[in-house]
Amino acid sequence: MSNNISVIGRLGRDGESKQVGSTALYEFTVADSQGYGDKKTTNWFKCQLWGKQAESAVTQYLVKGAQVAIFGELTLREFVNKEGAKQISAEIRVNKIELIGGKQEGQAPTQQQAKPAQPAPNNGGFDDFDDDVSF
Fold first, then answer.
1. Sequence-separated (6 or more) residues with CB below 8 Å from residue 95
2. Mean pLDDT over residues 124-134, rounded?
3. pLDDT in tens, 76-93
4. How far apart are CA 94 and CA 5, in angstroms?
């Protein structure tokens, strides 16, 4: 039985590629904010793409401020910080990732932004209908 989670948020920094033995690993953090004003809170998730996903083209778009939907397995890890206090880290082993939204407002354009979508192919000549036809 697995512990599944879905999160929609923004990347807190650019992702990083690593090698663990012969397996590719791509790590990034996602911030998920709830509430507003003085009641606003933010949860941070350390996310990991492994293997073929870590080598895929999607990683070029995982830059600071990008909005994503993450689906995966949640693990809570306990660790001791620099001050000696125990903390808990929420980590997601990503099974699926979707790029959503555009760039964050005020974000400067980068070379890694998605290319514009290609026009849809002609669907069997349906685009050839006269626009003056009334129904």
1. 71, 72, 73
2. 47
3. 999 999 999 999 989 999
4. 9
Q: Does domain 4-128 have CATH number 2.60.40.10?
A: no
Helix (H) or strand (E) holding 53, with range, is helix 52-55
Beta strands in the chain (DSSP E): 4-11, 16-20, 23-34, 41-50, 67-80, 86-100
Residue 119 contacts by C-beta under 8 Å, 6 or more apart in sequence?
Answer: none
Q: Are 32 and 46 spatial neighbours (Cβ–Cβ below 8 Å)?
A: no
28-79 pLDDT, tens digit each: 999 999 888 999 999 999 999 999 999 988 889 999 999 999 999 999 999 9
